[in-house]
Amino acid sequence: MTSAHDPAACAVLLLWLPVGAGGHVVKHTSRWWELLSARREHRPRAPLLHAALEVVLHDGRYVVEMAPAWGVPASDRQVVASGPVGLRALGRSRFFRYEVRCWRDGVIPDRRWAVGGPVVVSRDEATAARLLAAVEQVPVLTWGRTVPPTGEIWNSNSLVSWLLVRAGLPADLVPPGGGRAPGWAAGLDLATRGAWRGPSGPE
């Protein structure tokens, strides 16, 4: 793996983004959440990161991410799934819903704050296409709720790790700068157990 890429080549790129970059409320609430978690787990506090993917194919560049359904200007974001945030009942409100996007020529608002730059996970065209195809099968769980038996919450990191496993890519990636990516293990566990959307998967 490397951190440089040729935009004209097929690639799966992983971006590590600081939680709350460019904002205020999420930045401060996540800082307090990490402080409490560190004390409870008797470890030093660490920077919190969330992951997003960029997939480059010969027919274009795609952004794959999980983000709140509000706060983005109206556009064709190519949403492939939507789920509740916090509690399933709260999901009736747009302010408590998230979107899973597979967005051609899409935008990652906090991309400029990516830690360490894009990481090239694969340059194989078939693998990149397989990852994009898997997006429509991702589990739609409640963002912020614990996924047993991992003890970790379902969030954007879970989405990315789930997709990497489903595409046959290495998912034992370590966040840069001593950061933490809560939710990563939840996605790994669900992908390993074969959980996806559909009759036999989570709803």
Short description:
With 203 residues, the chain is α+β, with helices and mostly antiparallel strands. 23% of the residues lie in helices and 24% in strands. The chain has helices at residues 25-41, 125-134, 156-166, 184-192; strands at 11-18, 49-57, 60-68, 79-84, 97-104, 119-122, 146-147, 152-153.
Describe the structure.
The protein has helices spanning 25-41, 125-134, 156-166, 184-192, and strands at residues 11-18, 49-57, 60-68, 79-84, 97-104, 119-122, 146-147, 152-153. It is an alpha+beta fold and 203 residues long. The longest helix has 17 residues, at 25-41. The protein is 23% helix and 24% strand. The chain has one domain.
